[in-house]
Amino acid sequence: MQKLTLKEKIELEEMFTSMKRAKRSDKYKNFYKTLIKKLLPATKKSLLTKS
């Protein structure tokens, strides 16, 4: 598991915010889901539990 830089953490936070905003759009939801799965499942978990 690689360490995240602050910039990457902020980008991931923004991604989740965008995802919440895009709830109505399945296209975006699927896009973000795929992106997050590809990125860091562990980070996804920590971000979701935090918020």
Describe this structure in words.
It is built from 3 helices and no strands. The chain has helices at residues 6-21, 26-39, 41-50. The longest helix is centred in the first third of the chain and has 16 residues, at 6-21. The radius of gyration is 11 Å and the shape is globular. The chain starts with 5 loop residues before the first helix and ends with a helix.
Which key phrases capture this entry?
single chain, 51 residues, mainly alpha, 78% helix
- Main beta sheet: strand number and arrangement? none
Span from first to last CA?
22 Å
- Number-wise, the strands total 0
The helix tally amounts to 3
- For the CA atoms, what is the radius of gyration? 11 Å
Fraction of helical residues: over 70%
3D shape = globular
Strand content: under 5%
- How confident is the prediction overall: mean pLDDT? 72
Low-confidence stretches: none
How do the strands and helices of this protein lay out in sequence?
Layout: H1 6-21, H2 26-39, H3 41-50
Concise account of the structure shown:
It contains 3 helices and no strands. It is mainly α. It has one domain (6-49).
